[in-house]
Amino acid sequence: MITLRALLRPSRVVDAHCDIPCGVYDPEQARIEAESCLRIIEKHDASDDKLFRSRCIHVKEERAELVKHHLDVLWHDYFKPEHLEKYPNLHDTFWKATKQASKVKQSMDAGAAKELLSMIDTVDKMWKATGGPEKTRVSGRPA
Amino acid sequence: MSPGRAKIRTLVLVLVLGLAAAAAAWRRLDVVEVRGTSMAPTLLPGERLLVARLPRSARVGEVVLAADPRDARRELVKRVTALGGGGVVLRGDSPAASTDSRTFGAVPMAAVRWHVLARYWPPLRFGRVTAAHHVLPEGPRT
């Protein structure tokens, strides 16, 4: 017997959906933070000041975290299934790059920071080849 | 009210409920709950709707349920604003707070399988959800 209550109970939820993607993406954001990491490591190594060195470590960890964040945003929000078809190694590239960012966060190894920069450049190539600069950046900036 | 009219009214009510139960059993009618605000002011979050399986293709103006082309597990509730070669163009009634065909393009006709007949909950907002043919104001693309 179907009761009135059962009849009126929703069978599922439907979405009047809104995800507010601003649609602006650029691997440059990740690259600038990663360049910061590299420079900070170099400044750390060149200094004898204990306090300055500990500040370097602290700030570098923050910057490395931002690299991970910016890479994640590109990965989750900018790249679409059709890009994956074009670049079957897309997930692997991001996985390795974000792992590398973790490595930079954990260590004071300038080599690791340089490796991270080259990984971000790989992402940048994919972003450019998929029309990223035209599709996601606001045009009309003075040269 | 005369006893005769009360009897008729009860009879009609039983008949309507019986038909609804039969339709539900036949999977032609269903009830769903709204999440999100992109269909405001027509539909508000938490409201419950009576929906019917579309026996035909979608029409411009009506509120429909469509599979999200970006995530098939999600079902969207939007208004049809155009039909074309590309499929069905969907738009939220609150365009400034809606992710719709402006973002994901037209959806295939086959993705639109239900249309919204009425809102039955909350009781004070009970009423038919009708087709609207006016041109919706363009909000910023979000």
| SSE arrangement of chain A, N to C | HEHHHHHH
The residue-averaged pLDDT of chain A reads: 89
Oligomer: heterodimer
Tertiary shape of chain B: elongated
Beta-strand content bin of chain A:
under 5%
| Rg of chain B (C-alpha, Å) | 17 Å
Count of helix runs of chain B: 2
Overall pLDDT level of chain B? 84
Q: How does the major sheet of chain A shape up?
A: none
Count of strand segments of chain A:
1
Strand content of chain B: 35-45%
How would you classify the helix and strand content of chain A by structural class? mainly alpha
Helical fraction of chain A equals over 70%
Low-confidence stretches of chain B: none
The poorly predicted ranges of chain A are: none
Question: What is the topological layout?
Answer:
The complex is a heterodimer of chains A (143) and B (142).
Chain A: H1 4-8, E1 12-15, H2 28-46, H3 50-78, H4 81-86, H5 90-106, H6 110-129, H7 132-136
Chain B: H1 3-25, E1 29-35, E2 48-53, E3 63-68, E4 71-84, E5 87-91, H2 101-104, E6 112-121, E7 127-128
